[in-house]
């Protein structure tokens, strides 16, 4: 393959050293070499010592406290782009592992579609290696929500074609440096969740195609960092949604968005109530209040 630029891989860790180490090892096994930058986002366990011991050859940035996923990513992206040889940044969740040819396949895709700004792989569930977690995503035009393609389907070759998509999820996304140079970094208003959809919208509106690459394969646990704290997940999901809609909804779409997302969160609240997850219920109100206050302060 013709050399088309250096790749810097970025992995964010927060109290999940074992998962992060596995992600790093899968990156180190790539058929295309890439530099690896790991940001420890204020871990309170032995993550730093474990990663340092088990993953020589990486660059480890240690933040004094958890600054949020978007901010931690930006710290690493700035470091990566300071190297003028870096043409691509690969963001990879620390609960994901990549097939050894995944980066190679994504670079091949960009070589055939040089205007592409962001490309994403086919992602499977880690516990069900042939069940699809992501095979592209389109955008529901009025309410801006991501409509997943193929989610929970067994892979029988039905998503084998490379194609344009509206969203590439932050679990794994390869981004050309010119996208950052054009639209900037991730919006740090998003502490956790929605920063990837916001970034994709900004990139697409700036004219960069987003591409799904089915030959690039990744396995993903999904929300491992917040699995032990569902209240934290609920809080930041609804807060991030409010910030996202405030940024991208128009006066014409405010009412449809309000109705759609109210129904979405009402369904989740009911599911939590039925499931006995009473501790998460207050997180919705706290997240909504925090999101609204954040937007009031921005206006």
| Domain module count | 2
Low-confidence stretches: none
* Radius of gyration computed on alpha carbons: 19 Å
Estimated structural class: alpha/beta
Q: Into which percent range does the helicity of residues fall?
A: 40-55%
Quote the distance from N terminus to C terminus. 49 Å
CATH topology description of the largest domain: Spore Coat Polysaccharide Biosynthesis Protein SpsA, Chain A
> Counting H and I runs of at least 4 residues, what is the number of helices?
9
Question: How does CATH name the architecture of the largest domain?
Answer: Alpha-Beta Complex
Main sheet specs? 10 strands, mixed
DSSP strand count: 12
Residue-averaged pLDDT: 91
Strand content: 15-25%
Name of the CATH first level of the largest domain: Alpha Beta
* Helix-strand string: EHEHEHEEHEEEEEEHHEHHH
Give the overall form. Answer: globular
Architecture blueprint of SSEs:
Layout: E1 6-13, H1 17-28, E2 35-41, H2 47-54, E3 59-63, H3 69-81, E4 86-92, E5 96-98, H4 102-112, E6 118-125, E7 132-134, E8 137-139, E9 146-148, E10 163-164, E11 172-176, H5 177-183, H6 195-205, E12 210-220, H7 230-248, H8 254-274, H9 281-298
Parallel strand pairs: 1-2, 1-4, 2-3, 6-12
Antiparallel strand pairs: 4-11, 5-12, 6-7, 6-11, 8-9, 10-12
């Amino acid at each position: 393959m013709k050399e088309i630029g250096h790749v810097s891989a970025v992995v964010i860790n927060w109290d999940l050293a074992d998962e992060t180490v596995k992600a790093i090892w899968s990156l180190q096994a790539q058929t295309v070499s890439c530099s690896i930058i790991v940001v420890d986002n204020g871990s309170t366990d032995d993550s730093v010592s474990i990663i340092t011991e088990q993953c020589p050859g990486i660059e480890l940035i240690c933040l004094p406290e958890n600054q949020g996923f978007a901010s931690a990513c930006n710290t690493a992206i700035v470091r990566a782009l300071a190297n003028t040889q870096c043409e691509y940044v690969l963001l990879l969740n620390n609960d994901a592992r990549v097939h050894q040819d995944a980066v190679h396949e994504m670079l091949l895709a960009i070589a055939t579609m040089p205007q592409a700004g962001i490309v994403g792989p086919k992602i499977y569930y880690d516990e069900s290696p042939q069940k699809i977690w992501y095979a592209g995503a389109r955008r529901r035009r009025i309410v801006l929500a991501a409509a997943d393609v193929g989610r929970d389907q067994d892979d029988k070759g039905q998503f084998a074609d490379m194609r344009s998509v509206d969203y590439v999820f932050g679990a794994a996304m390869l981004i050309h440096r010119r996208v950052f140079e054009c639209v900037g970094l991730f919006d740090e208003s998003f502490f956790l969740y929605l920063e990837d959809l916001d970034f994709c919208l900004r990139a697409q509106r700036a004219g960069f195609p987003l591409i799904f690459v089915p030959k690039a394969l990744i396995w993903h646990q999904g929300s491992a960092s917040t699995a032990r704290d569902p209240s934290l997940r609920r809080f930041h999901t609804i807060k991030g949604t409010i910030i996202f809609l405030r940024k991208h909804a128009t006066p014409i779409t405010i009412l449809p968005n309000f109705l759609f997302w109210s129904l979405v969160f009402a369904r989740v609240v009911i599911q939590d109530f039925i499931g006995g997850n009473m501790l998460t219920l207050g997180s919705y109100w706290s997240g909504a209040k925090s999101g609204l206050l954040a937007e009031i302060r921005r206006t």
